[in-house]
Design brief:
23% strand; GroEL; 2 domains; 33% helix; elongated; 188 residues
């Protein structure tokens, strides 16, 4: 069975195990969408107006999360941070939300699960979801990692290197790169 490991932890309140995963891999801001104009200021004369602005920002984020949920997913992997409010909405919907995955990691995850990286969510038909048989959190030594097994493309594996020091790990990595160079030059 082909597997992929992502060096992230599952957040609190998130499902720890997902079977028959439908994965939306994204690169989108999941913090409060604020107007980003350099030097702009808003003046309010009461705390009620501040609360109204915060309420409008929260409602806008809720709409964005609902669009994402509307894709019929049970796992959302994002390149950027996911703030507490959207993470809570995903958890309430039973969706595993993984935040701040490194760019190489989400590119590989999209590739091996058969999905594509999305940044807009208005049209669910234009977004290609990834799939795998099982997502679960595993421990290797003292490190928690997210394990994707039964990936769609079936052409991935993860090699986990552990060692007593960075020097040992660097040497092991160089040896693996040498191995890849030799194997890559062979004809099957």
């Amino acid at each position: 069975m082909w597997r992929f490991i992502l060096d992230k932890k599952i957040g609190l309140g998130q499902p720890k195990r997902i079977e028959n995963a439908k994965i939306l891999v994204a690169n989108t801001a999941m913090d409060t969408d604020k107007v980003k104009i350099y030097g702009a200021r808003v003046r309010v004369d009461s705390m009620t107006k501040v609360a109204q602005i915060e309420g409008a920002e929260k409602e806008k984020m809720k709409e964005k999360v609902q669009k994402i949920i509307g894709h019929g997913i049970n796992c959302f992997v994002n390149r950027q941070l996911i703030y507490n409010f959207p993470e809570e909405l995903f958890a309430d919907a039973g969706i595993l939300a993984i935040e701040h995955a490194d760019f190489d990691g989400i590119e590989r995850l999209a590739l091996v699960t058969g999905g594509e990286i999305a940044s807009t969510f208005d049209n669910p038909d234009s977004v290609k979801l990834g799939h795998c048989k099982l997502i679960e959190e595993i421990m290797i030594g003292e490190d928690k990692l997210i394990h994707f097994s039964g990936v769609e493309m079936g052409q991935a594996c993860t090699i986990v290197l552990r060692g007593a020091s960075h020097h040992v790990l660097d040497e092991a990595e160089r040896s693996l790169q040498g191995f890849y160079s030799v194997v890559g030059g062979l004809r099957w």
